[in-house]
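SEQUENCE-TO-STRUCTURE ENTRY
===========================

Subject: a protein chain together with a token-level encoding of how that chain folds.

Sequence line: the amino acid chain in single-letter code, read from start to end.

Question of interest: how does this chain fold, as expressed in backbone structure tokens?
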Amino acid sequence: MERVKNIAEAERIAWKAEKLWKDDQYLEAEKLYYEALAIYPVYLELSEFAERAMKIGDIKGANKM
């Protein structure tokens, strides 16, 4: 039950990060992506972060992910 709760929380945070990313608020979005990752480390949608970071030229951020 705890795992399901963690997945839901990570998903909620990731959706907020998505919205921030689309609004070009990259630093805030990145913080939320890592927060979601800390809650549920295998949350699959977070893998897109590395690709997005590369597209804006954030090599360090992409490698960190």
Observations:
- DSSP finds four helices and no strands in the chain.
- The two ends are 27 Å apart (CA to CA).
